[in-house]
Amino acid sequence: MDDEDGYFGKSVAATYDDASAGMLAPGVVDPTVDFLARLAGRGRALELGVGTGRIALPLARRGVPVHGIDMSRAMVARLRDKPGGDDVGVTIGDFATTRVDGTFSVAYLVFNTIMNLTTQQAQVDCFRNAAAHLEPGGCFVIEVGIPELRKLPPGQRVVPFHVSPTRWAFDVYDVATQAMSSNYVDVAEGRGNYQSIPFRYVWPAELDLMAQLAGLRLRERWEGWTGEPFTNESHRHVSVWEKPVNEGGEGG
Ligand SMILES: C[S@@+](CC[C@H](N)C(=O)[O-])C[C@H]1O[C@@H](n2cnc3c(N)ncnc32)[C@H](O)[C@@H]1O
């Protein structure tokens, strides 16, 4: 880990936007912002893991008041340096537990970031925290990949996803605990530099149960931001859980 900023310290923050260029393309950002702006309506939006503002900044430009939570000061410094960077309020802290003032019509956690919480308890806490920030009728939105266990041959735990002369990258799965890690070896002048980032993979049905524990119920599930149907071939999902209007706060 880099420093107190977690896995998104200064060196990662410095290259995050370039490394995520595909995710910053208008074809990706615009449908995401359309979807979230529709749910925000006239209310406020809360982004968990706001990062460098990939989604928060364009959503704020649409006129939606946006607040973010992130543990990485380095990522947030990048957000602040961008045009409109001061228009997004940010609280530094762990998004599984950090509370901010006021209520929101939508809270969202995109780009697989729920998996950065590496225990089931932290993921459950995150749902409870999101729910606590929602006004009745408000929604919590998650975008996350489907675990790629179907790529694992019997007896193997490793799925390579990039192999080139300069980079070897592979995921390692522990199907007993749902722990996984993404691992990178960057090769320069014949020497490798190794980095490993831990995650916890999580299935849609388990997320639905976490939502239920937090007093939320599933409203929509799509394959992507433009309403593609979610099927057994989908590689990711965009799910929306709603806080019921008449049933108050957290569930059991
Ligand atoms: C993959 S980046 C996504 C950033 C942004 N949402 C986007 O879509 O580009 C994950 C972000 O979540 C933050 N993060 C990860 N775990 C966190 C936690 N437990 N509490 C607060 N922030 C966290 C990281 O610092 C990083 O900025």
UniProtKB/TrEMBL annotation:
Keyword Methyltransferase appears in the UniProt entry: yes
GO biological process annotation, one example: methylation
Residue ranges constituting the Methyltransferase domain according to the UniProt record: 46-138
Pfam families: Methyltransf_25
Domain of life: Bacteria
Entry coiled-coil feature ranges: none
UniProt keyword list: Methyltransferase, S-adenosyl-L-methionine, Transferase
GO MF annotation terms: methyltransferase activity
Keyword Methyltransferase listed: yes
Name listed for the protein in its UniProt record: Methyltransferase
Native organism: Streptomyces noursei
